[in-house]
Design goal:
mainly beta, three-stranded antiparallel β-sheet, 2 helices
Length: 267
């Protein structure tokens, strides 16, 4: 089941059937050995770069919050293979927008390709190889647009001397979402480069010398599904979230490609 690479014949059949889950027994007769790969297959994507692990998320339309998440690994032979069966996912309640056009608070998921470098959770590390923060009630993702130097920078406390606002309209306290943030992977959308972030002892906060774009939004994650759609993140069932996190490996340079199907090749 999950965790095993899908054989070539079954992988092609799954591609032909879209997001349906199919149990295959015996040999399957395929219509053509040269069937064209689907638009979401890694060889069809524009910004794979050096990634050898890909998480690909697609929706049927730009306005849909319902999505399918697929996972692929590139072997030492250079061949991409599906890792897990397709997973049901949810996206932003207002669908999708191109990352460079997104507006904070518009509840869309950003279209694009982004690296996956860090993970976090209110529970202990489930076995991911990514750098992992065991979060607590003091951790925030700052999102105060009036304070660019802390925007979309993780803060380990809301210190009395901080320069950013900690209310729910301007920042996100991780502990306020005990279901969704059991486990999460940070999607590197509109994030300051890690090497530009330092700790300010004067204000007891982390700041960046190269701020992110305060218009585009912050705190975009791959996390556990709550009650339905998201405010822009991608969410999965708990078991699927754990499986993906255990699979992701920094040396494989994982990326996530996310878009409605019509835009997935260019995302």
């Amino acid at each position: 089941m999950k965790g095993a690479a899908v054989p070539v014949r079954k992988r092609v059949l799954l591609a032909l059937l879209g997001s349906c889950t199919v149990i295959v027994t015996g040999q399957v007769s395929l219509p053509s050995a040269e069937a064209a790969p689907p638009p979401y297959f890694p060889t069809q994507l524009a910004h794979v770069g050096n990634a050898r692990q890909l998480v690909v998320v697609t929706s049927s339309s730009p306005s849909s919050s319902y999505a399918t998440l697929r996972t692929y690994s590139k072997g030492s032979d250079g061949v991409w293979r599906q890792q897990f069966a397709p997973m049901l996912a949810r996206a932003g309640s207002h669908g999708w927008s191109w990352g460079i056009r997104r507006v904070q608070g518009d509840r869309t998921s950003p279209i694009g390709t982004f690296t996956l470098t860090t993970a976090f959770g209110l529970r202990t590390n489930p076995g991911t190889h990514l750098a992992y923060l065991h979060a607590d009630q003091d951790d925030y993702m700052a999102g105060d647009q009036r304070d660019p130097r802390t925007y979309n920078v993780l803060q380990t406390s809301a210190s009395a001397t901080r320069t950013w606002l900690a209310n729910s309209n301007d920042s996100e306290r991780i502990g306020a979402y005990p279901t969704q943030y059991q486990y999460g992977v940070v999607i590197d959308f509109n994030r300051p480069v890690a090497s530009t972030i330092t700790y300010s002892r004067v204000h007891s906060e982390y700041v960046t010398s190269r701020p992110a774009n305060i218009r585009l939004g912050f705190a975009i994650y791959l996390h556990v599904r709550g009650g339905g759609s998201t405010a822009g993140c991608i969410s999965l069932a708990l078991a699927d979230q754990v499986a993906v996190m255990r699979w992701l490996t920094p040396t494989m340079h994982p990326r996530i490609v996310m878009a409605p199907m019509v835009n997935i090749r260019q995302a």
